[in-house]
Specification:
With 118 residues, the protein is α+β, with helices and mostly antiparallel strands. The chain has one domain (13-116). 51% of the residues lie in helices and 15% in strands.
């Protein structure tokens, strides 16, 4: 059996570690903002919720790149900017959805019910 090994030459020793950490962080990002479009949430509301979630993370000293990664997604023949997120990023986006869609209302009430049970 032949095995081909590709070796990338790094300009800086730290680059290899950075690539590894980026790949590791990417495995934790299982959520896409565009999934909210399928739930009927207006794009404007999604944009506001993402900005608020990011502002909260920045204000508390969290590293945004560990929770949000810009990607491009194709939906109905249109390519647009999207974000992959960790669970924490996803929950913050859901909590910051403005009222108006049935999905946002249902999710936020579910969070309340969970918290009441604690």
């Amino acid at each position: 059996m032949k095995v081909t090994v590709y070796k990338r030459k790094y300009i800086n020793e730290d680059d290899g570690l950075k690539v590894f950490i980026d790949a590791l962080l990417a495995t934790r990002m299982k959520y896409l903002v565009s999934d909210l479009v399928y739930e009927g949430v207006p794009k404007e509301d999604i944009g506001k919720a993402v900005k608020h979630a990011m502002a909260i993370m920045e204000a508390t000293g969290m590293v945004l790149e560990e929770h949000f990664k810009p990607v491009y997604t194709q939906l109905k023949g249109t390519v647009f900017k999207d974000f992959k997120m960790t669970q924490k990023g996803w929950f913050l986006v859901l909590l910051n959805l403005p009222p108006g869609s049935k999905f946002a209302n249902r999710i936020q009430l579910s969070f309340c019910e969970i918290l009441e049970g604690i």
